[in-house]
Amino acid sequence: MAEVVQAGLWGLVAGSALLLGAALGYGLRVPQKVIATVMAFGAGVLISAVSFELVGEAYEQAGLAPAAIGALIGALAYTGGNVWLAGQGARHRKRSGHAQAQPSEAEQGGSGAALALGALLDGVPESAVIGVSLLDGGAVSLVTVAAVFISNVPEGLSSSAGMKKAGRTKGYVFGVWTAIAAASTVSSVLGYTVIGSFSPAVIAAVTAVAAGAILAMIADTMIPEAFEDAHLAIGLITVSGFLVSFALSHT
């Protein structure tokens, strides 16, 4: 199978977890502690993937400076986009609506579009690195795919539950996550085709940029939701997710 097709398929697999989470969050009454638990676990999984699969790989390919500068640029870019989206009503886009409610369209006009853009901002870096991972020997990093998939389930679950509480229609909720799953496919393909034409140093820097953006997303949107209802156990749960991902990367 052509590697570009593989990139798209793996991006779609990871993105489909958002739809799975959305179906659970919209169709079921999932207890808040369960949402918090899976969010904390997903955060730990992603932290491990960022550390060992992304920043670690960038460091090995290009050294400390490109890895560190790239990560900072990614964090700055994500934070800048997130600050703007917060002003448009997407501040609590990953919240289930229990402690921090998402605004309805009546409460803040344009917040629906901002929520969709926020979901895109969160998902693109994760998907792009899946395509980039194919550049290393022609085989996708299954650890990266697993980490993104596992973390996408609680993201979709929590966010769709919050969208439902804010009065968003079923068509809107599943339309958003279907579009993000499609965007994940495209991002993974672009990660392979576009970034693959660059030098190893540039590829390493771009990987680090994605890592910085993902880490900023974890701290800003995933951990706060997890802390609301699992604060006494969030450390243990997050470390458990970290160790699962770490074990996968060393098998």
Q: Can you tell me about this structure?
A:
The protein is mainly alpha-helical and 251 residues long. The chain is 80% helix and 0% strand.
Layout: helices, strands, pairs:
Elements: H1 3-27, H2 32-62, H3 64-90, H4 111-133, H5 142-165, H6 170-193, H7 200-230, H8 234-249
Radius of gyration: 17 Å
- Shape annotation: globular
| Biggest β-sheet strands, sense, barrel | none
Question: How many individual helices?
Answer: 8
Class by alpha and beta content? mainly alpha
Mean pLDDT score = 82
Summarize this structure as a short list of keywords or feature phrases.
single chain; 251 residues; mainly alpha; 80% helix; 0% strand
Describe the structure concisely for a colleague.
With 251 residues, the chain is mainly alpha-helical.
